[in-house]
Write a structure and sequence with these properties.
Elements (H helix, E strand, L loop, with lengths): L1 H28 L13 H15 L2 H15 L5 H18 L6
Length: about 100
Amino acid sequence: MGTQLFKLLFIGLNLFALQHVHAANIKSTTPAITLNSNKQPSPIEKALEQLKRDEGKMPSVTNDKLKVKAFTSSQKEPTQHFLAEQNQQFSRLLQSFFPSQGS
């Protein structure tokens, strides 16, 4: 019994040490990934930079007025018909999940 426990402990310690050596070896041999900043910017990055430059040319007051106007014009109060329709659709959804058995 004592020798079996000793063998089991010895094998466990060897596997533990082997795992750490293997992990350290992988860490040391894996090349570090570096980002090359000399690459050409993507078309999306170019468009974003151009948009930022164009916004800088316009006076900020005009930009703010346009943003406020666009924000207020897009918001509309929901009508009673729209709310009733949403309520009906939601009720149907709940009834499909929880059908009434007696009524």
